[in-house]
Amino acid sequence: MTLADQRWVLLDTDVWSVLFARSTRTPDARTETWRNLLVGCGLVIATQTKAEVLAGLAINDLGAKRRESILSQLAGTSRVPVTEDVIVAYADLTADCKRAGHALYAKQHTGDRWVAATAIAVGVPLLAGDGIYAGAPGLEILTDSAH
Q1: Confidence band for 102, pLDDT divided at 50, 70 and 90
Q2: Which of 49, 52, 78, 84 could form a disulfide with 45 if both were Cys (CB 3.0 to 4.6 A apart)?
Q3: Is residue 72 part of a domain?
Q4: Residues 4, 142: Cα–Cα separation, whole Å
Q5: What is the pLDDT at residue 110?
Q6: Would you state the pLDDT for residue 145?
């Protein structure tokens, strides 16, 4: 994976789950908007997202067929490993959020900070379904207005 070859977007766990793991019987109204935003983009996830998806599979009995489908989708999604750059970005983001009083600093958002730090470290925008990332220092967020 070479991020310079095309425009890449890092998907937060909620977006990846809606686009690739959600049951078609329970559609999400955001799906079409997100798919339109991602046209022509390479998709990548953080290691944190892979861990969260695997934890969800370990906790929830979704049946063998659905589980295999999700694992197949996960295996086919490019992932950014935790590198020294990601670790430094995480430390800097944590400190910057604390100084700024940003909600992403809160302990319950540790996983979200890892996702954001991954996007910052590799220099790609983040697409997320929740607002916790808004205004996070150094983070580019993909939105309707940014496309």
Answers
A1: very high
A2: 49
A3: yes
A4: 17
A5: 98
A6: 56
Using pLDDT thresholds of 50, 70 and 90, give the confidence band for residue 4.
low
Cα–Cα distances in angstroms (integers) from residue 111 to residues 24, 52, 88, in the given order: 27, 9, 15
The better pLDDT of the pair 28, 74 is held by 74
Examine residue 102 and state whether it is found in any structural domain, yes or no: yes
Residue of higher predicted confidence among 146 and 134: 134
Residue indicated by tokens 């490993």:
81
In a domain, 140, yes or no: no
Residue 46 lies in a domain: yes
Domain count for the chain: 1
Q: At what angle do helices 47-59 and 110-122 cross, to 10 degrees?
A: 140
For the CA atoms of 52, 77, 125, 141, the dihedral, rounded to the nearest 10 degrees, stands at -50
Residue 37 lies in domain:
8-127
**Residue of 82, 14, 80 lying closest to 52 (CA atoms):** 14
